[in-house]
Design brief:
Arc Repressor Mutant, subunit A, globular, 9 strands
Length: 304
């Protein structure tokens, strides 16, 4: 359980690109008490950048039992592939990969994980979601965070995703938006104060969908190297594509039909009737899958 590691700052434009580049350039950079100076931000913002690098799966804490002199953080394979293909984090797919990691990471992003995997309402008010999170924590833990802590975490969460409707023009010098807002997952209706989760189809690449299909609870068949799962189970499992991509059952099915019929070299198939469809697909290693996404994006741009 982790609340508040973000120091109340949601991800800001350029933060992850800058933090990842520094980590790859100097593996011990985040061991330096003055890393904030290297990042060009305040001390609390530097702590927030480190938190988000870990929470989004761009970095991982290094094992230091036998090597206490080893740098505390290291970039993951995902971080290395993104740094190679999209160093400025301009591709929407980059943010979809990071979003999926984030909502599958209860250890660093408890609120994010809870909301997408356990919160049922698609339309809600801020006070309601805070109360539901507090109730959830009371049922699962003896040490419940204070209401103020939960309120700050929900504020950071909503600030990460919610897009105001109707759009209100802001002073460019004061406007601070989170890149996750570009995914258009949550809308905030200013007049009523309500928020709405978008469970419709998303504008995602086949590789993003396949990444979402690599749900933590699924097991590979050692003999075939494939995953076999029913559509019914896939729709409901924690960390599954319906949860992490915020898709209704119909929207997920449409995405899967499109994936199967796309004529792409993807080992994916569906069989059976509506109520008992069986899915079979391969877990493509993350570096290969993410590289395929960027290669496909470049190919498509070449023909625009």
């Amino acid at each position: 359980m982790r609340f508040g590691g973000h120091q109340t700052f949601f991800v800001r434009e350029g933060w992850l690109a800058k933090g990842l580049a520094l980590l790859l350039e100097d593996a011990s950079a985040f061991d330096d008490p003055f890393v904030a100076d290297q990042l060009g931000v305040g001390r609390n913002m530097a702590k927030s950048i480190e938190h988000w690098l870990l929470a989004t799966g761009l970095a991982i804490k290094a094992e230091r039992r036998r090597r206490p002199d080893r740098p505390r953080l290291r970039a993951t394979e995902l971080g290395e592939v993104i740094a190679k293909h999209d160093p400025w984090f301009l591709d929407p797919g980059t943010w979809w990969f990071l979003h999926i990691n984030l909502v599958r990471n209860p250890g660093h992003a408890t609120t994010w994980h809870w909301f997408f995997n356990h919160y049922a309402s698609s339309r809600f008010e801020r006070a309601t979601v805070i109360a539901q999170l507090e109730q959830h924590e009371r049922l699962r833990s003896q040490r419940v965070p204070t209401p103020k802590t939960l309120e700050r975490d929900i504020s950071c969460f909503l600030g990460s995703y919610a897009v105001e409707v109707p759009y209100r023009r802001k002073d460019p010098e004061e406007e601070i938006d989170c890149p996750f807002q570009e995914l258009r997952i949550i809308r905030h209706f200013r007049a009523s104060g309500y928020y709405e989760l978008n469970r419709r189809r998303k504008s995602i690449s086949p590789q993003v969908l396949l990444y979402a299909l690599k749900a933590p609870g699924l097991m590979l068949d050692a003999r075939t190297g494939m995953v076999d799962v029913t559509l019914h189970d896939l729709q409901r499992m924690e960390g599954g594509p319906a949860q992490v991509l915020a898709l209704s059952a119909d929207a997920l099915f449409e995405h899967l039909v499109e994936l199967e019929a796309g004529g792409r070299k993807v080992p994916f198939s569906m069989s059976g009737l509506a109520g008992d469809r069986q899915l079979r697909y391969e877990f493509i290693p993350t570096p290969e899958l993410v590289a395929q996404h960027f290669d496909s994006a470049v190919s498509e741009l070449a023909y625009v």
